[in-house]
Amino acid sequence: xxxxxxxxxxxxxxxxxxxxxxxxxxxxxxxxxxxxxxxxxxxxxxxxxxxxxxxxxxxxxxxxxxxxxxxxxxxxxxxxxxxxxxxxxxxxxxxxxxxxxxxxxxxxxxxxxxxxxxxxxxxxxxxxxxxxxxxxxxxxxxxxxxxxxxxxxxxxxxxxxxxxxxxxxxxxxxxxxxxxxxxxxxxxxxxxxxxxxxxxxxxxxxxxxxxxxxxxxxxxxxxxxxxxxxxxxxxxxxxxxxxxxxxxxxxxxxxxxxxxxxxxxxxxxxxxxxxxxxxxxxxxxxxxxxxxxxxxxxxxxxxxxxxxxxxxxxxxxxxxxxxxxxxxxxxxxxxxxxxxx
Amino acid sequence: xxxxxxxxxxxxxxxxxxxxxxxxxxxxxxxxxxxxxxxxxxxxxxxxxxxxxxxxxxxxxxxxxxxxxxxxxxxxxxxxxxxxxxxxxxxxxxxxxxxxxxxxxxxxxxxxxxxxxxxxxxxxxxxxxxxxxxxxxxxxxxxxxxxxxxxxxxxxxxxxxxxxxxxxxxxxxxxxxxxxxxxxxxxxxxxxxxxxxxxxxxxxxxxxxxxxxxxxxxxxxxxxxx
Lengths: 341, 226
Ligand SMILES: Nc1ncnc2c1ncn2[C@@H]1O[C@H](COP(=O)(O)OP(=O)(O)OP(=O)(O)O)[C@@H](O)[C@H]1O
Ligand SMILES: [Mg+2]
Prior knowledge:
Chain A: Belongs to the ABC transporter superfamily. The structure holds 2 protein chains of 2 kinds. By secondary structure, chain A is of the alpha/beta class.
C-alpha cells in the first residue's frame, strides 16, 4: 500500500514540481500515472524511492514513513521498493545473472541462496538461457526483462516503473506489460507505472491518475475515469482519429459507450437511432476492451441542427453520454499526446 | 667515413649500454605508472565524487582540489623536474639516475591521470548510479562496483595515454641525467654525432610506445562489454 499525503516538492531554484499531491494506492493495484512532459511524474516516482527528498508532506509505503526515514532505515525502505527504468540501467560489465544478483549482493544474501534466487528470477522473466549474456548481447525487450528481474530480486512489495516500455516497439511493449501483469497476479506486488502511452494504461492499469503541473487533476479506477466525460483523460484514453475531412465548425455528436447502461454495444445504439428515424453517419469511432469490457467512442454527424438536437435527446434519454461538438474544436482539445509505435 | 661504416651497429655503446638503457626506460615507466595509479586513481575518484556530478558534491573542496591539479598540469615537465630537485633528494637520496627521475615523472603524471580518471567516471551514466543506490548500496559500493567497474575500459584507455606520454617524458628526463634511452640518445646520438645510436634509440622508443598502446587497447577491449 502506498500513501501520499499533501506531498509537495520544490526544487532548489524554485520549480514547484509537485503541489500537495494526495494519492492512495491499495496493495496489489497496478496504478498508472500519466501527464504531459514536465508534469512531475518522474519527480513523484523519485520521491517515492527516497532518491529525492520531499519539501513537504508524507509518503508511506506499507506503513513505513519514507519521508522520516534516514540512514539505515532509508536503505532498508529502499530495499522494499523495486524500480524499473526507461533506459533499464543495467551494468554493462555484468552478465544478466550478475545484474540480477546485484541487489542480493548488497543485501549480503549468501552465495548459494543468491544463485538459487537468480535462477528463479531468470525463469520468471523467461530468460533462463540468457544468464551469461552481457546486456550488449540482449535485445531491448530482454534487457527490460532483466531490469524487471533485478527490481524483483530483493522481494520488494512495491514495483515502480518510470516509462518502462517507452524505448520498446509495440509487440515487445505488450510482452513486457503482460509480464508485469503476471507478476502482480503471482506475487501480489503493488505497481506504479509512469507512462505517456495511453495504450499502456488501457492494457494493464487498474487505476490511473492524471498529473497536471504538479497536481493530481484526476484519479480513480480506470473505468470510472473513462466514464467521466468531463475529464480530458477520458478522451485521451478512448481517443478518436481526427475528422480532418470535415469543414471546420461542422457539428458532430460525440457518444461514449461504456457497457454500463442499457445501451452497451454499438449495434444497440444504431438500432436505437434508426428506430427513431435518425440517420447515423459515423465520422470516426474507436472501441477498446478495458478490463474485459468494451468501451467506445463515436463521432456521429447529424444532418442539421434539428436532427442534432433530436439525436442528442434520444441518446441522453437512453442513458448515454452524448454531447455536441464541432469539428474544429477537436484539434485543439488534444491535451496529452498519444504516441503509439 | 669508413670508420663510421664499420661502427654501424657494431658500436661499443650499443653493445655495452643499450640493454641497460632499455631496461632503465622500462623501469622508469613502470615505476612511475605504478605510483601514478596509486595516487592518481584515488585523486581522480575524489575529484569526480566531490564534483558537480559526483556522489557527494562539495563545491569549495572540489574547486580547491581542481586548482591544485590544474596547477600541476600547467607546470612544464622540465621545469617541474628541476624545481622539485630538493624534494626528489629527500625521497630518493639523489637527483640523478632513473630512480630519481621517477619522482618528478610521478608528480607530473598524477594530475594528468587523475583528470583522465575523473573523465572516465563522468561518462558512467547517472542512471546506473541511481539504479544501484536504489538497491540500498553505500557510496563506497557505488564507487567501486559501478563507477570504477563501469568506467574501467575508459580508465585503462587513460592509463595507456598516460604511459605513452610518460615514455616521452622519460626521454626528456634523460636529458638532465635521468638515464634510459633518452640519455643515451642525447649523450651519444646528439653530442657525439653517432647517428646509429640515435636511430636505434628512436626505433626502440617507438617499439615500446607501440607495445604499450597495443597492450592497453587489448586490455580495454577485453574489459569492455558495451
Ligand atoms: N533536478 C531538478 N532540478 C530542478 N528542476 C527539476 C529537476 N528535475 C525536474 N525538474 C523540474 O520539475 C518539473 C517536473 O519534472 P519531471 O521530470 O518530474 O517531469 P515528467 O513529468 O517526468 O516529464 P517527462 O514526461 O518529460 O519525463 C519540470 O518543470 C522540471 O523542469
Ligand atoms: Mg520523466
